[in-house]
Every structure is written in structure tokens, then in C-alpha cells.
Amino acid sequence: MRRSASALAALVALAALSGCGGNGKNDTGDSGQAPGPEALKAAKGPVTLTLWHGLGDTNAVALQKLVGRFNAQHRGKIEVKAVYQGQYPDVLAKYTAAIRDKSTPSLLLSYDISTGFLHDAGQTVPAQDLAEANPGTLSLDDIRPAARNYYSAQGKLMAVPFNTSMPMLYVNDDLLKKAGLPANTPLNTLDQVVAAAKTVHRKVPKTGGLVQPFDTWWIEQLTAAAGVPYCAPDNGRKGGAASSVKLTSPQQRKSIGAVSDLYTSGAGLDTGEDGSNAVTAFQQGKVAMMFNSSGAAGKVKEGADFPYRALPYPLSGPAATAGPVVGGAALWVNGPGHSAAEQAASWQVAAFLASPASQEEFSRATGYAPINKKVDALPGQRKTLAARPDLKAVIDQFNKTPATTAAAGCLTGAMPTVRADVLGPIQSAFAGKTPLDTALRNAESAANRDIDRYREQAGQ
């Protein structure tokens, strides 16, 4: 995600939150509870819904196909109109404007780091409440724990994960072999990956050991994989809202420092912020290993003419508490300004899109990991995973990631600006221009100013 776009979206979100006071109450009927199927039955005529999203190209086609199938199954009762609103920051900017104008869509598919703002804005009906009010539609126990963990606050699921991804380690086995490393070289921990990267760089001329996109998501991943929260208290997940960012703990210093040392020594390959540039370098054999999203699996497969593996993101902390943080987007049902029938119908859509059949189809078309655990038992999925060990590695990592505070990631509406302001100091350190300890302190201070400003605007 481009830094300027994310930062702009965050500023717009701040303005909207200040305007609405973050106290929007859900219009869930006279009872004040999430509407159930009786609300939909009481509707006079078909219920028309709008679904805003930021999916483009193949992903948009796959979503539209599912929406078309839902409409066909509910003809005369519910009609969904999926509307592309631009990239994810554009979607958030338009949504915050819609809050001010009282013209929000029925359903919103929004990206991971908008979760804190959407939680604080008070414009949506918690997914957990809707699931309980509509038994038999979607069992929340079927959602992969890592995805459910990310979109929960105070133990309650706020939105339904739809398209999800995870960080992965991609390995060029030929280059490891050229460096004299055995085929069974363990790459389960960050220390093991760093050691292998240094060996490749030392023994294979003009070849990098490791590449990763240069955005702040990877600093968050290194933190979670060390088993420590990115924000305090408790990543904003349990009691109160997140009040600070931590980047200078001993665990973070060690893990971030290990990767930074690769770059300052030349063993790390700098390809900029765009993940596709890292993929190209990996495909061209310029680097032995790559940290990238699981969403890159399809692109890697298309262009790699050498044997490679996709492995779980390496840990530097205890497996019981450490793990990667999910990316992607989730479906939010809007409350204020939307009738109980509309909310109930929106839930039907969310449940349909999260169903095993829909998730299997969308995953096969896009490369995103299916969030519904029941997909794993489908014959088509088993056949796909048998032929694609890289995709199986993604699913295995999802299933093994603990639903812990560290792996949940930081929940704050300031997250887009935090990411933007942490990026500069970290890039400077990785380029060898700023001592790492200085960069981490500068990044931490900038992030905490962002959170302080957000909390003041939000009245927290």
C-alpha cells in the first residue's frame, strides 16, 4: 500500500470520527438487538443492498460471480449491487465521507488496518451479534482462529473475514544448494533464515540472501513473530483502546536488527515497497529467499522456472504465543440508516460469501486463503492442495497460528498513519543511513504521536 494513500485515508478517517464522535448507534430495530430472520420476512418487497469494495481485476470478477449467484438464489427477495470504489484507501476515504453524509453502504469490504477505525466509528453491527441472531447461517467456529482473532475486540467478532492472506517464506532450493546448504536446511526460525541468507550471499556471487517488500507490515510481522504486542495495552484487544506503540523492546530489537543487518551487509536485496518487485527478483534468481504475502503464490508459480518452496513465516519467539498477523479484508454490516430488514439481508450475504463453497471458489480464482475451515474437507480443495504444496503451506500456517494477543496485531484507528510514519525511519536504518536504535526510537515516537492525536480526535 502506498504510504501517501494510506496516510491520506487515515486523515480523512480522523475527520469523520471527530465529526460523528465515534458514538454511532446501530439501528437494529425497537429491541436494540441485531435483527434476525423475522426482520427479513417482514420486509415489504425485495431488499436492495449495496456492497462497497476495493477488489480489482481477477479478484473483482471472482467477487461479482459470487454476488451473481447469491442474487440468483434470492431472486425477488434480496438483490446485491457490488460497487468498486477504488483501492482500499479510496474505499475508506469514501466510507468516512458517507458517514458524514449518512449515506453508508449496506455492506463494506474494507482492509485490515481500517479495523480499528471501523470499530471506533460505531457504525456497524458486530458480526457475532448477527450470527447469534441468525442461527444456521454461519458458524463462527468454522472461521479460522487466526482470522477471527484479527477481527475481534474484547472477545467479540466485529466483521466477517473474506479475503485473507499471511506472510510466507519463499525459498529457491537451487541457490541454497549452490551455497552448499543441505536440502533439509531448517528454516523454521528467524535465526536460521538469517544464517542461510548470509551463507548464500557469501558463497554465490552477485546473489542476495533475502528480499522483502519495504513496507511497515513486515515490521509488524517481525514483532508478532517475536511473541510481543505491537501496541499497549494488549494490542488494544482486551480492555481499553491502544494507547502506545512499542518498537524498542529487546525482542523487537533483536528480530528487526537481524533483518536490518542483512541489508546493511549487502545480503539483503532492496527492491522497494512494491511486493511485485520482490517477486520479480526472486523469479529471476537474484535472491535465494523472499518474505512476501501468501497472495503472491500465484505470481511466483507463473514465473519461477526452478524448484522452490513456500514455508511458514519464521518465528523468533515461542510458538505458543508468537505467530504472523493476517492481512486482507473483511465484511462489515452497517447499522445506522439501514433498516432491520436491510441488516438481516446484509448478514445473509456475508454468511454466503464466507460459506465453504464460496470460499473454495474465491480461493481457487484469486489465491487468497479460504477463511472457512470446512473448505479443507472438500474434495476439490484436497485435490488442489495435493497439487499445490505452496497453497497447502498457507493453510497449514493459518491452522497452526495461535489466537494470541501478539498474533492479533494492533487494533487502533491510527494504524494507517502509524504505518506511514514508521516506514521512513526503518527504511533509513535498513539503508545504513541511521543507526537502528535511533531509527527505532524515532519511529516509536512518531507512531505514539499519531496515536495520541487519534485518541484526542476520537475522544478516547
Automatic annotation (TrEMBL):
Family according to the record: Belongs to the bacterial solute-binding protein 1 family.
Protein name: ABC transporter substrate-binding protein
Molecular function terms, GO-annotated: maltose binding
Residues in the signal sequence: 1-18
A Pfam family annotated for this UniProt entry: SBP_bac_8
GO annotation terms (biological process): maltodextrin transmembrane transport; maltose transport
Native source species: Streptomyces rhizosphaericus
Record-linked InterPro entries: SBP (IPR006059)
GO cellular component, one term: ATP-binding cassette (ABC) transporter complex, substrate-binding subunit-containing
